[in-house]
Predict the 3D structure of the following.
Amino acid sequence: MMPTDVMARASVSFSSLGFAPSTTIPPGDAAAAAAAPTPSSFSSKGRLALRSALEQFGFAVVTDVVPEDVLRHWESLWAADLMSIVDKTASDPAAVATLSQDPIARWPLDQLSLGHKFATEYGLPQGRLAWAVRRSAEVKHVFANLFDTSDLCVSTDNVFFNNRALPGDSTDHERRNELWPHADQNVHDLPAGVWEVYQGVMYLWPANVDSSATVVMPGSHMQTFSDLMADVDRWRSKGHFCKLPKSQLGAFAAAAGRVPVPRGGLLLWNSRTIHQGWSNGPRLAVPVCFEPKSRRDESALARKRDCVLTGMPTTHWASLGLCHHLPVDASARGAVDGLALNTAAHLHTGGTLPEDINELL
Ligand SMILES: O=C(O)CCC(=O)C(=O)O
């Protein structure tokens, strides 16, 4: 885990960010997108603390971004998303009834995978939960503090979901994970390669020693990232997913740590910071990234609209509208007796592009 002294300095409370209560909108309300926080409502103390944590460590945790009732509402939206992809006419009514008692806990993830690593399929990246988080005025306010503007567009990445409990007998040091540390920025891919971009993950369930989490290497957005980018031949004509070479894995493992995030907290990191996911134990979290709209061109907007309408994810880049095609986990498709699935979670919009979603793209 990340050392506690680093965490103490990398944590900022949401209440210090000067959120104006008049902009609080009930979750999922279509008016949330329009209720943009204004720079005048920012508190300079909180903003400075957030920016200096990001500058020093390349990551920060904003705590208590949304209250418990909102979190419970968001969980209910995830349950609705899961039930929405069950094809009721092709499924056994008894299996549907059992699942519907508690879809989040009972979803048979080993047999009915929702995609590759994350919930990438069945329209879930454009589902109810994902859009409730993207519509949250509080989440947007955090990013507005970073960019000094509320004229922001949002990314539409995959949802992170794992309902598998850890094996009761495993202790933390025995748990193993694949190493895939990377930066999500490439300075040789211009102009985006030199923009400031902050990736975010809104944690509905806490990240702790017994859960899945995000791993970051503190401070790696500086020298480690520059060293990675020094190999011009390797990165020229490549995209923004830049993996650390094998020779650096030992250094990464020694310096990196899983970031504990309380329920309702927003983890942020610089796209240059070397990071990866750690998949061991439960997780319900939504990646969210806002960037200034001024960066986003018409073709990116068209791709983003298309993703919303077809249920596909984009990468975390809000400005680029890059479709996030991940390999499909075909072996785990529809293998449970009695449950058949549909790509349908994105149809909560009625197959149209609501004005407030369009406004956020
Ligand atoms: O699983 C995570 O928290 C991180 C995933 C990741 O590396 C990314 O979104 O770039």
